[in-house]
């Protein structure tokens, strides 16, 4: 297969780095990784969260080191192993793991969503599972791991407090977000800021099917005034959803906002290539509301 496909956007594929913690195999989206370093001594921080090993300073950038084993209820890591240096939600964080196995290219369709016995709204550390041969690789929810350790790094819900009391807006907003917790937070924030007509979808495929159904009924532009999508989702990711919308003669008129922890410089370029109207990182819920205001006003006035 042509390896250049990985440079394309909207193919509904991702690269997953497989790593181990003890005898267990886990995965992380390569888009979150900056580099992998061999273990280095860290400086402990007094009164830090139990899962925080300490800090270290590669290339003059101070970075928090999180012990993934401890996060997942295992015996704490010992010296050795590797640091996976990540960047998401505008944070640089090192995760201490035992061993890196390799990188796999998979389709979002191949990622099995854990059922509700594993993946409850508040306490799951997994976003999906991939079957590789006779082995199951669990994709970890790194955003949730970090937010549990440091809640202020999550959605800045307080940003919409000053937006209460705004005029109620019936403009329908379609959301594609696979995290039940984040979906509820985003919905609550939008309702607080006046947007009461929310159409929630658990992944890009569900959102696309709904849009196609509305289009077939003939009044999709009245039924959806704005689309908000995450990037990482099972079945169909947000880039694929955006590309499908923006290459459709009718649906392309609907503004699309990519709202994801993965919006960095590279991802922003990819989003622009496929026609996203706005791209924001997950903590910026206040900016999300402002972007929706602007795009809906612009869309309605251009009709």
Whole-number tally of structural domains: 2
In CATH terms, the superfamily of the largest domain is CheA-289, Domain 4
Order of SSEs: EEEEEHEEEEEHEHEHHEHEHEH
**Roughly what percent helix?**
25-40%
Mean pLDDT: 86
> How far apart are the first and last residues' alpha carbons, in Å?
44 Å
Major beta sheet, specifics? 5 strands, mixed
Strand content: 25-35%
How many individual β-strands? 15
CATH topology of the largest domain: OB fold (Dihydrolipoamide Acetyltransferase, E2P)
By CATH reckoning, the class of the largest domain would read Mainly Beta
Classification by helices and strands: alpha/beta
The side-by-side strand order for the widest beta sheet comes to 8-1-2-10-9
Q: What is Rg? A: 20 Å
Number of helices: 8
CATH architecture descriptor name of the largest domain: Beta Barrel
**What low-confidence regions span 5 or more consecutive residues with pLDDT below 50?**
1-7
The coarse overall form would be globular
